[in-house]
Amino acid sequence: MANNVFIDLSAFQPDSLDYFNQMKALGALGVVVKLTEGSEDGSAYTNPRATNQINNARFAGLKVSAYHFARYTSDGDAQNEARYFAKIAKQFGLPADTVMIDDAEVNSATNYQSSTKAFINELAALGYTTNGVYSMKSFFTGGTLDAGQLPNVWVAGYGVTDLGVSNAVAWQYADEWNGYSQDVNYDFTGLFTTGLATSAVPMVQIPANVEVEHINTPATGTYIVKSGDTLSGIADSFGTTYQNLAAINSIADPNNIQVGAVLKVTGNASSEDTYYVQAGDTLSGIADKFQTTVDALVLRNSINNPNIISVGQKIYLSGSTNTYTVQSGDNLSSIASSHGTTIDSLVSLNGISDANVIYVGQTLKIS
């Protein structure tokens, strides 16, 4: 039983009976379908393919479970999300003994463990008592989540031989399977692959949504600029230099930083092309800004819902934009000459206020 295989999927995977028959023929015994994301007063997302995915997986003879992609920022918000998950599950006719999973991989709460437990407890109170938590290995081994205090822990760990989580009931070990762009998992206990959910739909009434404030905790290693801040003052607070902050955040004018801007404050400049989400950003706006596409950003960053990104979130950029990392002794003229472009073009592309001022480690867009 330790090597039973199951798949998990969202709206990005097919929903046809033929697809699930193929998955079963390859050895899958169960499927976990993404059902919802966020809360009724938040993103309120329901997988548009869930109906067909659930029905056709059942027709193919696979055990069906469901998961919710968590966006909660507090215990109260987590309870609201559990209510939304349960409400939609009931609408889909999912029995009370369906395995219901909290996909907890976006740490936007002050105490993520507490909020995750609040979600699980609320879900159980609403009649779905066979529940569990999915997250990446680093969240469990790094202390973000305490696996020992959570039920039915399902761990994502690619390219590892030891999950480091002794009570894991399942292991997501790859995101490609037999030529398919498909997450695949080992089921250690049979929870996801044996038996069928056969009980009635829970009769517990879903409480009304309680209004809460959605406040995302900034990503680790970032800082949100406040009124009165200076780049040098921020640098002093984090034990670095304003030149390094300018370089790693591609700030053209270190005397001009915007209140509310999210700055990376750890590490050194890298040629890696990244962007930190600012207030008001959309994925389509970021794609336009960096001359790429929403689809490319979704693929590069494994984004489940392109309509939802968080302030402070690190976005790996893709597309045709060429970049160059400033080296010691460089000036804008020499960089332009070596890349077959002009100073004016570099100034315009990078929002540089003074063509005579660039920093070692600064990442410049070339085209």
UniProtKB/TrEMBL annotation:
InterPro entries in the cross-refs: GH, Glyco_hydro_25, LysM, LysM_dom_sf
SUPFAM superfamilies linked to this entry: (Trans)glycosidases, LysM domain
Stored Pfam families: Glyco_hydro_25, LysM
Record-level GO BP terms: cell wall macromolecule catabolic process; peptidoglycan catabolic process
Top-rank taxon, per record: Bacteria
Domain LysM: start-end pairs: 221-265, 273-317, 322-366
GO molecular function: lysozyme activity
Entry similarity comment: Belongs to the glycosyl hydrolase 25 family.
Protein name stated in the entry: LysM peptidoglycan-binding domain-containing protein
